[in-house]
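Lab notebook, design round three. We kept the backbone fixed and only want residue identities now. Task for the bench partner: fill in a sequence for the structure below.
Input structure tokens:
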């Protein structure tokens, strides 16, 4: 890891809880079906954020350990999970699992968080913690697909470049996020969890202008701390709101969303597969 894991999303947590879309019901029903989730399993949701996976999955298993290095994400997650009693919210990152006293795990889920980890080292460690028939489930936003680019992306980019510069940031440094050439599928395929099924699903949501503005503060590269002051955050929000209203005078926009799910298990007799379903 090139960054401090707990400073990547500074100030983002309330925006994350409010504006990130989470995952569609089909994603959770597929997990239930594929792993016969019957209220007895133990799940680690690593990089849990504000509980986009941890909270819905808790309804199908015995215990969820929701782990994240960002304390504010955990606060928001707990708030969203009010009434759910089988989630333990723990502060830690992928390099600190040894200190968390986790029991043997049936499933480890990582929603949009695997890229922040030292992937090979983490998978080696998970091999010691996941039961024989368990699995690693990695979910990404499939952003390499042009169909999933938000229709307002050009407007946001122009203003983001104006306020934050064109280089992508992560945490407090430009080096915070470095895109790896090696795909998640490649990393998994040479790990103990080398049997990988890849599926994609797509859906869409309606957003109003304030939700589009709020969404920007949920990203590591445009979280509130990146702007340096409340005044600059407010100025960015005002300019963005105005530009969006100019293009979308009725105030709502449909956003297409896609996820790619990689379900990785230890080898049985088959070889690595890629079974994409149409979006
Ligand atoms: C994009 S958010 C994903 C949140 C949620 N899982 C979801 O699917 O929406 C990424 C999360 O990973 C966490 N994170 C960053 N580095 C991490 C690491 N090395 N180990 C575990 N989590 C990490 C961040 O604090 C953040 O909450």
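Proposed sequence:
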């Amino acid at each position: 890891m090139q960054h401090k894991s707990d400073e990547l999303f500074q100030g983002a947590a309330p925006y994350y809880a409010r504006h990130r879309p989470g995952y569609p019901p089909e994603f959770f029903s597929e997990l239930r079906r594929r792993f016969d989730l019957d209220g007895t399993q133990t799940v680690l949701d690593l990089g849990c954020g504000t509980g986009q996976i941890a909270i819905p999955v808790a309804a199908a298993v015995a215990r969820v350990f929701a782990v994240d290095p960002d304390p504010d994400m955990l606060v928001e997650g707990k708030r969203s999970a009010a009434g759910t009693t089988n989630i333990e919210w723990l502060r830690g990152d992928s390099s600190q699992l040894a200190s968390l006293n986790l029991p043997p795990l049936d499933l480890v889920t990582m929603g949009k968080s695997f890229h922040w980890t030292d992937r090979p080292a983490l998978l080696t460690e998970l091999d010691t913690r996941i039961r024989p028939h368990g699995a690693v489930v990695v979910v990404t936003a499939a952003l390499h697909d042009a169909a999933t680019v938000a229709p307002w992306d050009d407007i946001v980019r122009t203003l983001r470049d104006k306020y934050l510069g064109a280089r992508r940031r992560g945490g407090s440094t430009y080096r915070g996020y470095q895109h790896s050439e090696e795909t998640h599928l490649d990393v998994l395929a040479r790990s103990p969890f080398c049997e990988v099924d890849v599926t994609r699903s797509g859906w869409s949501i309606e957003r109003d202008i304030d939700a589009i503005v709020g969404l920007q503060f949920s990203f590591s590269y445009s979280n509130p701390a990146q702007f340096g002051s409340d005044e600059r955050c407010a100025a960015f929000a005002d300019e963005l709101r105005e530009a969006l209203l100019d293009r979308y005078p009725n105030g709502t926009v449909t956003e297409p969303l896609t996820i790619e799910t990689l379900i990785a298990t230890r080898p049985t007799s088959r070889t690595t597969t890629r079974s994409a379903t149409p979006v």
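Keep this in mind before ordering anything: Residues 5-146+178-204+257-265 form a domain with the Rossmann fold fold (CATH 3.40.50.150).
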